Here is the input.
Amino acid sequence: MGDTIRVHGHTVGVDGQEGEIIEVRGEHGEPPYLVRFSDGRETLMFPGPDAEILPAKEHTK
Here is the structure.
């Protein structure tokens, strides 16, 4: 937890999204992840190939 998930935009000119993984609900650290975005909304995610996980220690560099 505390890692960041970054989902890249699918359309030119549309920014991606970043959120904090606040809970891991899968086994062995696997999805689904409960993610909180900067606007306060939370969602359960199964990230696709357009997403990357940034470990907390890497994201703070």
